[in-house]
From TrEMBL:
<keyword id="KW-0238">DNA-binding</keyword>
<dbReference type="GO" id="GO:0003677">
    <property type="term" value="F:DNA binding"/>
</dbReference>
<dbReference type="InterPro" id="IPR005650">
    <property type="entry name" value="BlaI_family"/>
</dbReference>
<keyword id="KW-0804">Transcription</keyword>
<dbReference type="GO" id="GO:0045892">
    <property type="term" value="P:negative regulation of DNA-templated transcription"/>
</dbReference>
<dbReference type="InterPro" id="IPR036390">
    <property type="entry name" value="WH_DNA-bd_sf"/>
</dbReference>
<comment type="similarity">
    <text>Belongs to the BlaI transcriptional regulatory family.</text>
</comment>
<dbReference type="Pfam" id="PF03965">
    <property type="entry name" value="Penicillinase_R"/>
</dbReference>
<protein>
    <submittedName>
        <fullName>Penicillinase repressor</fullName>
    </submittedName>
</protein>
<keyword id="KW-0805">Transcription regulation</keyword>
<dbReference type="InterPro" id="IPR036388">
    <property type="entry name" value="WH-like_DNA-bd_sf"/>
</dbReference>
Length: 126
């Protein structure tokens, strides 16, 4: 069952990824960690962090006069929830059409195909 958390926008997800990597950071530290190809204003980063906190994805504490943000939800959890929502909305809850789309339209390298075979074999054996 999906939690009551709202899904993340692209910008929120970008900021959450940075915070996951930093483990704990101020708005200024997250802003400084932005890649050059994704420039955001300081106030936009601050807004995203506040939204992430309001949605329950991060928590913050006041250290002196500075607010420090920390992830509350692990990346793996967000990935699972996001993919589950996608499968439900686009594919009626059926994962095979998503897998078919990824394999046929996105393509897989020989190494990825071998890894997929190994995962399927392990699943079959369990």
């Amino acid at each position: 069952m999906a939690p009551d958390r709202s899904p993340l926008s692209r910008g929120e997800l970008d900021v959450a990824r940075l915070l996951w990597g930093l483990k704990s950071a101020t708005v200024r530290e997250v802003h400084a960690a932005l890649p050059d190809d994704r420039p955001l204003d300081f106030s936009t980063v601050q807004t995203y962090l506040r939204r992430l906190e309001a949605k329950g994805y991060v928590t913050s504490v006041l250290e002196g006069r500075t607010r420090v943000y920390r992830p509350r939800i692990r990346p793996k959890t967000v990935i699972r929830e996001t993919v589950d929502d996608l499968v439900e909305r686009l594919f009626g809850g059926e994962p095979l059409p998503l897998m078919r789309h990824l394999i046929e339209d996105r393509g897989l390298s020989d190494e990825e195909i071998a890894e997929l075979r190994q995962l399927l074999n392990e699943r079959e054996d369990s």
